[in-house]
Amino acid sequence: MLVSFKEILQDAFRGHYAVGAFNCLSLEHVLGVIEAAEELRSPVILQLAEVQFPYSPLELMAPMFLDRAARASVPVAVHLDHGQSFETCVRAVKIGFNSVMFDGACLPFEDNVRETSAVARMAKAVGVDVEAELGKVGNTSFGTGDSEDHPDVFTDVEESARFVELTGVDALAIAIGNLHGRYVATPKLNIQRLKEISARNNMPLVLHGGSGTSDEDFKACAHNGISKINVATSLQMAVTAKVQDYLAAAANPDYITMKHVMKDATKEAVIRHMLLFESDGKA
Asked: For the chain, is the Cβ count within 10 Å smaller at the N or the C terminus?
């Protein structure tokens, strides 16, 4: 069932677990995610990032997201991840997404507030929830994920409170040492900073760059205010590995079987993450 993003995250925040937000780039991804959620009785978020539009176009993916969400027996939100402009957020709202993220983290604080506020006013006028980002969640192309020696990249506690008050967002993605992409070393997350931001804001927080995070840090995040964890790279890696295994082992590989392999690999990866996030049984 299609359920509001805000409702799903507030339940997770109160219950001290996190909901997986899975970037789906294909039919097999979507089917695998929903099957996993229904099997574990877990709420889930289907999402697509703007940088993924060239190979998974919004206008083609959205109807599939929305159809599967409506038919699912568990709560599902359909979310725009990392919208890069006001116009992109409007596109997602018009096509039926029930939450959007505007990513202004690379902007100066005042500009991020201004742009995020404009998106929030637009979205909330039609009942759509909003996520934003504050702090520097980098890319693994530029490091190993170890940010302990660079505290300036972390989200500032007092600045986060000002940002939430000024923008009225429903969820805030923060930087605590996490990075986007495929890690070349396990990141070391600043759980103390997470605790401080959570205590100051008392609202659902979001962890981006979930792929590659240690099980211990995933648990610590879910127990201390992170209510949504984004997973993208892990799904792609899981599917790629299973397809490689299938092609290497099958005497006569065929496309239809490979589609099943892709769906099953997605489901297996999603189940693993949902169990780590402790969202199973919460639907």
From this structure: N
Structural contact between residues 42 and 253, judged by C-beta atoms closer than 8 angstroms: no
Distance CA 258, CA 249 (A): 12
Q: How far apart are CA 95 and CA 199, in angstroms?
A: 36
Nearest partner of 31 among 68, 73, 76, judged by Cα = 68
Would the CA dihedral through 202, 208, 209, 211 be positive or negative? positive
What is the C-alpha R_g of the chain? 18
State how far Cα 270 lies from the chain centre. Answer: 12
pLDDT for the residue 135: 87
pLDDT of residue 235: 95
Could you give the 3-state DSSP secondary structure of residue 133?
strand
Answer yes or no: 81 catalytic. yes
CA 200 to chain centre: 22
- Tokens describing residue 180: 């986007």
As a 3-state breakdown, the chain gives helix, strand, coil percent values, each rounded to 5, of 50, 15, 30
Please provide residue 81's backbone torsions phi and psi, each rounded to the nearest 5 degrees. Answer: -100, 135
| CA 116 remoteness from chain centre | 18
Q: Catalytic pick from 81, 103, 170, 280?
A: 81
Q: What tokens appear for 21 in the block?
A: 């937000």
Q: What is the pLDDT of residues 45-87, one digit of tens each?
A: 999 999 999 999 999 999 999 999 999 999 999 999 999 999 9
pLDDT in tens, 215-257: 999 999 999 999 999 999 999 999 999 999 999 999 999 999 9
Q: What is the distance, to the nearest Å, from the Cα of residue 256 to the centroid of all Cα atoms in its chain?
A: 29
Q: Are strands 44-49 and 99-102 parallel, antiparallel or unpaired?
A: unpaired
Nearest to residue 82, comparing CAs of 64, 100, 99? 100
**What is the DSSP-derived secondary structure letter of residue 151?**
G
